[in-house]
Write a structure and sequence with these properties.
Length: 310
């Protein structure tokens, strides 16, 4: 008797659990969920018929004990599963959402995680359809953003970090002379003591490293100015060599970094104007003397700051 009851419960619950399970995975696997729903609806009558036959057979066995099991639902009134109505509305289909890649190269991954498998790449300015925004946020190169499920024009799908996808077509750098239409100001008064590019490591004096910005030598306490209007997205001490660091996000996915500060004035979330004082020159972090490390990035790609300074 106990075996019959357990089998009956499983027989009744499992077909409907399959339909309800659509909710959890719908947004990641829209097409497969729609196909599953179509199969479930087309098989509804046969499922109900089989359940009815099973109950009839079971009741014939239980008849001697004067026990009867009723049908668990009104089989003549089953239409839709309420929890999935929002996904299968008969209303207008929402418009597609597109974005553009703002960095030279952006990895496509199998899951919404930077450690997941790389399954492709996107190029600068490539247009993609945005299918879904993950609840998971990551911070890459000082940019905090969610992961996005995207579809390429050839139909390939995958996950990308949303910090390098923009609603607007990004500005193209003039590759003939390296210059852009940007007019950044020099963020501190002083002498450029180290330029962008390959150089001998200034701390160890051994081997070469790649300098991601320019160094402006100046006394501790010299004012540091915002190179352009933007929003401060980081304003804190970091342990990876920058010391006291401010990062400002500007239009067209341009970012400026101000490192080794002795004092931080602008706070995260502040909107700053060009030439506004945001901090003071210092010697914090991995530094050999008082100076400002000034760095410019297009998305996650470091570029020569002097190409952007007027």
């Amino acid at each position: 008797m106990k075996k019959i009851s357990l089998f009956l419960i499983a027989f009744i619950i499992i077909p409907f659990a399959i339909i309800y399970s659509e909710n959890k995975y719908f947004k990641k696997h829209e097409e497969s969920v729609k196909k599953q729903r179509s199969r479930d609806i087309s098989n509804k009558d046969s499922i109900i018929k089989a359940m009815g036959a099973f109950l009839e057979e079971t009741n014939s066995i239980l008849k001697e004990d004067n026990v009867k099991i009723s049908f668990p639902v009104d089989e003549n009134n089953i239409t839709e599963i309420k929890d999935t109505d929002e996904f299968y509305s008969t209303g207008a289909i929402p418009p597609k959402i597109y974005g553009f890649v703002t960095t030279d190269s952006l990895n496509i991954r199998s899951m919404d995680d930077s450690s997941s498998e790389k399954i492709g790449k996107l190029k600068f300015k490539e247009k993609v359809e945005i299918l879904y925004q993950s609840d998971k946020f990551d911070t890459i190169n000082g940019i905090k953003a969610p992961w996005l499920l995207i579809r390429k024009e050839n139909g390939e799908e995958g996950w990308v970090f949303g910090g390098f996808i923009s609603d607007d077509l990004p500005e193209e750098i003039n590759k003939n002379n390296g210059k852009t239409d940007w007019n950044l100001i020099i963020p501190a008064r002083g002498k450029i003591s180290s330029k962008f590019g390959k150089r001998i490591d200034p701390v160890s004096k051994k081997g070469y490293n790649y300098h991601k910005g320019i160094d402006i030598s100046a006394p501790i306490g010299t004012p540091v100015y915002a190179a352009a209007e933007g929003i401060v997205i980081k304003s804190e001490y970091v342990k990876n060599g920058y010391g006291n660091l401010i990062i400002i996000k500007h239009r067209d996915n341009l970012f400026t970094y101000y490192g080794h500060l002795s004092k931080i004035i602008a706070k995260s979330g502040d909107r700053v104007s060009q030439s506004e004082v945001i901090g003071k020159v210092g010697n914090t972090g991995r530094s050999t003397g008082p100076h400002l490390h000034f760095e410019v990035r297009k998305g996650d790609t470091v570029v020569n700051p002097e190409d952007f300074i007027k």
